[in-house]
Amino acid sequence: MGKLLIVGSVAFDDIETPFGKSDRILGGAGTFIGLAASQFNVKSAVVSVVGGDFPQKYLDIFSDRNIDISGIEIVKDGKTFYWKGKYHNDLNSRDTLITELNTMADFNPVVPKNFKDADVVMLGNLHPDIQLGVIDQMEERPKLIIADTMNFWMDNTWDELMKVIARIDVITINDEEARQLTSEYSLVKAAAKIQEMGPKYVVIKKGEHGALLFHEDHIFFAPALPLEEVFDPTGAGDTFAGGFAGFLAESKNISFESLKNAIIHGSNLASFCVERFGTQRMETLQKAEVDKRLIQFKELTQFNIELT
Amino acid sequence: MGKLLIVGSVAFDDIETPFGKSDRILGGAGTFIGLAASQFNVKSAVVSVVGGDFPQKYLDIFSDRNIDISGIEIVKDGKTFYWKGKYHNDLNSRDTLITELNTMADFNPVVPKNFKDADVVMLGNLHPDIQLGVIDQMEERPKLIIADTMNFWMDNTWDELMKVIARIDVITINDEEARQLTSEYSLVKAAAKIQEMGPKYVVIKKGEHGALLFHEDHIFFAPALPLEEVFDPTGAGDTFAGGFAGFLAESKNISFESLKNAIIHGSNLASFCVERFGTQRMETLQKAEVDKRLIQFKELTQFNIELT
Fold this sequence. Notes:
Chain A is α/β, with parallel strands linked by helices.
């Protein structure tokens, strides 16, 4: 069974959408990545930090899914990372109302001994120094290192971010971030420049407009499944990354064909994530539902044109 | 051989993009639709109107591609429809600087006798009364009537537009127009409402984000091909529609599977259109280039996940 190491925030989210308010619920990139990856046949661990206010029932959500939590440090007298945000009416943009880093401010990730030989490492969106620190703890070079990042680190920690980018195999960023990272408007040109910086594979997330995978001269595209209603987009990108990483850790096949399938699995899982507040939908998700929607993805995208 | 009747503007365009200025060149929805459809094995005719200032060499562009121009009225003492526009830096939006309707203001389309039994009718974006007038001239119900429209007609000629929509099989509109037409933000819900208004098939164009085909419970999606550079988006939507209609007129197969392929062919041709100013790229386009890019479309979208 493949081993997947996940590093990312485990947090409290407080979300307001046009459809309602969540109050304080389970959130964080590490959480969404872990839940998505747990849909695959992998041994996974989440490395993170929480405060003494983090309820046991939330930790149980990980354990119940065989996600190793020995790498989630609990700072008894600290408080858990808290984010409060409000989505605009079209759900495509949001305002951050409150960010309290709390224990995340001093996050010093310790990779569990048992995961220092993980096949796949998924570095959630964090300070590049933290991401580097995790790579340095690996006993052997993982088959695949995937890192997510965002514009904040480009603005504030450019040099550190460049060090991360030089050492990873796959970067996942959104379209605006790819443009910012390269000063190229064309995503084709941006992806080519990013590959020169290090990662052999570039995944550009376009939210409701799907995701692109670039590798050398190859491009693959997965749409987002058109949904009757999007309830809460929080965590969709991390769920996508978790599905992507989980599939690759299960298959241990690192080829362009395999990464294509990983993109589809990631998009498929993300389509569930947005149907309820926070992690609610991912907590109840069953394999039969996942498979059924994969068939929808096939119907959505597969065609048969014979060239004469 | 299938017969395709095209109704749409034949015009002068004057385009400015971040890459340069076109000066006065051949344009118009009927032109782009006709050029795209000429890539297929069809008998097609364009119905339109131009002024005495319209050069013979432009008419020859149609004739050279076996497009019947007996339905293009030439008003000797009139001037040809003229549009001048300037694109913003991201090419996703543009300002109209000048619109001179000229002879288009009194356009009274006359369907050539030989095309009153066309298999497929493609109604370009025009006043709904003109679109209705063409439908009324058909001697028998075409196998397929496709109509393009835009927000302007929703704002100004709602009742007439509803009459058109009730009588067509396929509507092609963009995402914002679909929302305006139905007051639904979700494109899935919007497409369902539009199907209740008449058309069995709804094609929603999302520009660089691809196109969706809706029919009953089925959804199909074709991405736009990611390009290194988009030079001039003018006519991309009409080229898409021309490829869509041309393929269906050639195949005479009106099924969801066939419409899926039509969407891909339309997207494929549109990817060429944007590579040069106006019609330039479409005028030189060869079948071998088209086929080669169809293979790229397959690589871009086709995957192989076996469900267990």
